[in-house]
Amino acid sequence: MYAYKEYDQQLLNERVAQYRDQTQRFFKGELSEDEFLILRLQNGLYVQRHAPLLRVAVPYGMLNTEQVRKLAHIARTYDKGYAHISTRQNVQFNWPSMENVPDILGELASVQMHAVQTSGNCIRNTTTDQFAGVTANEITDPRPYCEIIRQWSTLHPEFAYLPRKFKIAVTAATDEDRAAIRFNDVGLRIIKNDAGEIGFEVFVGGGLGRTPLAGSLIKPFLAPKDLLSYLEATLRVYNRYGRRDNKYKARIKILVKALTPEVFGKKVDEEWQHLRDGALDLPNAEIEQMKGYFPEPAYETLENNPPPLADAKKENGAFSIWLRQNTDEHKKAGYQIVTLSLSPTSVAPGDVTDNQLDVIADLADKYSFGEVRNTHNQNIVLADVKQEDLYDLWKQLQTHGFATANIHTINDIICCPGGDFCALANAKSLPIADQIQKRFDDYDFVYDIGEISLNISGCMNACSHHHIGNIGILGVDKKGKEFYQVSLGGDAGFSANVGKIIGPSFNEGDVADVVETIIKHYIDSRIEGETFLMTYQRIGMASFKEKVYVKNN
Amino acid sequence: MSKIIKNREIIEDQWVSIDNPEQDLASTDASANIIVELAYWLENKTSLIERTGKVGVLLLGSDEPELFHQELNNIDLIAINFPKFGDGRGYSIARLLCERYDYQQEIRAVGDVLRDQLRFMERCGFNAYALRSDRNMEEALASFSAISVDYQSDVAEKKPIYNRRP
Ligand code: HEM
Ligand code: SF4
Fold this sequence. Notes:
The complex is a heterodimer of chains A (553) and B (166).
Chain A (H helix, E strand, L loop, with lengths): L5 H22 L5 H9 L3 E3 L4 E5 L5 E3 H14 L3 E4 L5 E3 L7 H9 L17 E2 L14 H11 L14 E4 L14 E7 L5 E7 L11 E7 L4 H15 L10 H8 L1 H15 L8 H9 L14 H9 L1 H10 E3 L5 E6 L10 E3 H14 L3 E4 L5 E7 L3 H11 L13 E2 L14 H10 L3 H7 L4 E4 L13 E8 L2 E8 L11 E2 L4 E2 L3 H15 L6 H8 L1 H12 L1
Parallel strand pairs in A: 6-7, 7-8, 16-17, 17-18
Antiparallel strand pairs in A: 1-2, 2-5, 3-14, 4-5, 4-13, 8-9, 9-10, 11-12, 12-15, 14-15, 18-19, 19-20, 19-21
Helix pairs in contact in A: 1-2, 1-4, 3-12, 5-9, 6-8, 7-8, 10-11, 14-16, 16-17, 16-18
Chain B lengths: L2 E4 L2 E4 L2 E3 L3 H4 L8 E5 H6 L1 H6 L4 E5 L17 E6 L6 H12 L5 E6 L6 H6 L4 E2 L7 H6 L18 H4 L2
Parallel strand pairs in B: 3-4, 4-5, 5-6, 6-7, 7-8
Antiparallel strand pairs in B: 1-2, 1-8
Bound molecules: protoporphyrin IX containing FE and iron/sulfur cluster.
Iron/sulfur cluster binds next to loops of chain A.
């Protein structure tokens, strides 16, 4: 993992001092609410219905255990004993007091963490595949490029006051897009061309919210040396021409759509002609050096499926199911990627307590080289677990409630806080998640349903990405009453589809019934080996609609 | 006369903004240094250049240096307006003027200019700042050195940090 150099640390310390000064000026009345608003947003501090919300950056989702313990400490000392993993691999504290924020930032800086640019209209934390560097199915480790982008985008003098927030995601995966790059403002997919050279496909203008759109390809092959000059050109075009008159039309996706991707791409190219081969050229030596900061941990030479694992699988059915659902193949023989489920029944998805964080840190030290990763599905990954340790680890995960074998199942719900906590909500979302999880409590049935994603947002800000859930649920308000709109066919992956709304919205009490009807129809219609999404794509919306509304009327 | 910050020092402003030239220009001393909007300058440049005082232009966020850069030799100062401090178009415009078109005279930030933006502005090519009149300029000077580490290249530092590393 990238370790800070002296100047990285110095920058962070100065930033904390600067923010402390800004906070003091605000309390002294020298800064107005509005002025302080923009400054605090640049440092990750929202003010919500109940309390401020502080969003801490976790660059590309990677944490070492010292950092995890620090987050536990902050949750315990400054918050109500829990933290929250966001869908951008960040960590949020929901109850800090505004006076304490400078101290919290100081604590974070002591472990090389910060809240710089985690909110506000600037370039946000770059996200990537949570299996980066450990999956066999990738072109190269994307994290060195993420770190290069992190440094370029941190306190960039030209792009601190963009029309709207700006998110970049990178993947190098060949099997599945776990970073949802087509739904970011800029999505970078690392590919190899016919000559065997590495480069980027550049997508722009993806996003969710009120206007869900999949990003368009504007550059089919960008050489790594041109990465920063091309990003700078893209941001400059957006900074100058993005709309600033209406915050709902200010994202880059609206500009790309208005100009068309072709014209937008041409404008970027024109700007890029001035910038390329200049100061922003990324020398190969720098890329190589950055790769050096992400060394492989000290893997042992091991065999796949060692006897302790094979025995445990034979003897323990529940363990085998967990192994199938919650772990993934590792690039190194004898190792496995383990996902800890943070969304067991009746706990808000993504929430972790201070004690759980400490436990996670202990487990990571013992089993996974002292590193953990956050996922955009609000789970936590131990990326380098020896297969011979899996059974021991599983037992400990069970004790602490992390072993719910629900990853990629209908119970692995992505859900925002909704009307219970969020000021912007149109409807509650957590009770809906709870209702669905209770309905699907027969795990044999859950596994039979197979791979599926279900996302619930409490309003069209779409924090939980309901548009790209295979099943998406959106809370809507009609004359003061809460209703739920259901969409089908969303796909976060490389093919990037926005779900289609099935029809008129449903009462709160009917949502689980509707989901069950949809699932049953899939089970009845599927062909051997098909996932929900494949069946939906083959048979289309019409018959689902028929089933759902016949039953309801 | 009001004060501005220029090259990190507080000085008397030597310029007068002419908001409504049709009306106010006649009553302004011909030797005064004036700032007029770009559109007015483009329409009246011959007579403006003939004045004894210097003439600067005021740019709005939507003005495009690409369209008038041939004229830069005749322009003695460029002021860029920030209607709200969250409107960041001025940063890109200043960089273009400075880096692409090599404009060497004063580039001044006007409008909603606060101390927390000064260092970013400087890195984008501004060298003068008309702070809002209710602001303490002495304190604002300290903001230039709040952050001493810059990852990126900028108008003064031509190398990004990875090319500066020993
Ligand atoms: C499961 C819990 C949560 C999820 C999944 C979630 C997800 C997200 C995501 C992905 C974003 C966009 C972040 C970004 O721009 O980088 C966001 C923004 C936001 N969230 Fe949440 N969040 C959660 C908790 C909360 C809580 C507890 C609150 C309120 C107390 C809240 C209110 C907001 C607001 C106001 C925004 C800003 C929207 C905007 O920028 O337009 N969220 N949330
Ligand atoms: S989707 Fe709406 S209700 Fe849910 S967290 Fe985001 S803003 Fe709040």
